[in-house]
Specification:
With about 190 residues, this protein is mostly helical. It contains seven helices and no strands.
């Protein structure tokens, strides 16, 4: 139960220091310091996070499990959020799960991201996750009046209460457009 229920603020109490420590662990040599050092990993990490957010939400959290244990796991990791979307304790990944997942992802990222870039890449990937979490929490619990934020709120809530199989992006509809899960009529409740 601890792995699926968590106070919202506890996620940030653990994750923000992790992102900071990963960023400050970066040891760039003199040739990589400057605009390229900062902006290349930032851009790739944020694009990488946003694609990861979409793929996790669509293919892992909405996985059509067939076995009893599979259905239970999908429900515990995400289905419970759809069953009780306003439950404040089931909106973020608990830090224990997040640290384990990030440790695994770090090993995978090391295969593709060169040494002076890996720490900034991972730090901004984690920050991308935090931005996603803030947006996700806000869509369920705040008014979000500015036009862009209001759009994201309506867009995500229609994922919960509209047609199935659409609107997997929470912090952006970009990948929904790319992969065909953006509704034909975004204003329509069911479409």
């Amino acid at each position: 139960l601890f792995l699926v229920m968590l106070a919202y603020s506890a996620c940030y109490a653990a994750t923000l220091p992790l992102a900071n420590s990963v960023l400050f662990a970066a040891k760039p040599d003199g040739a990589t310091v400057g605009k390229v050092f900062i902006w290349a990993p930032v851009a790739w990490a944020l694009v990488g996070w946003s694609l990861t957010e979409y793929r996790l939400h669509r293919f892992v959290f909405h996985y059509p499990a067939q076995s009893r244990i599979g259905k239970y796991l999908v429900f515990m990791f995400h289905g419970v959020h759809h069953a009780a979307p306003r439950d404040k304790t089931r909106l973020v990944m608990p830090p224990a799960g997040g640290v384990i997942l990030m440790a695994l992802l770090y090993q995978i990222f090391r295969l593709a991201v060169p040494a002076p870039w890996i720490e900034p890449f991972c730090a901004f990937f984690i920050l991308g996750y935090l931005v996603y979490d803030y947006i996700h929490y806000a869509t369920h619990h705040f008014a979000m009046r500015p036009p862009l934020l209001h759009f994201l709120k309506v867009y995500h809530l229609q994922h919960h209460y509209g047609a199935k199989g659409l609107r997997y992006g929470v912090s952006s509809p970009l990948w929904d457009r790319v992969f065909g899960t953006y509704p034909a009529n975004v204003r329509a409740r069911g479409g």
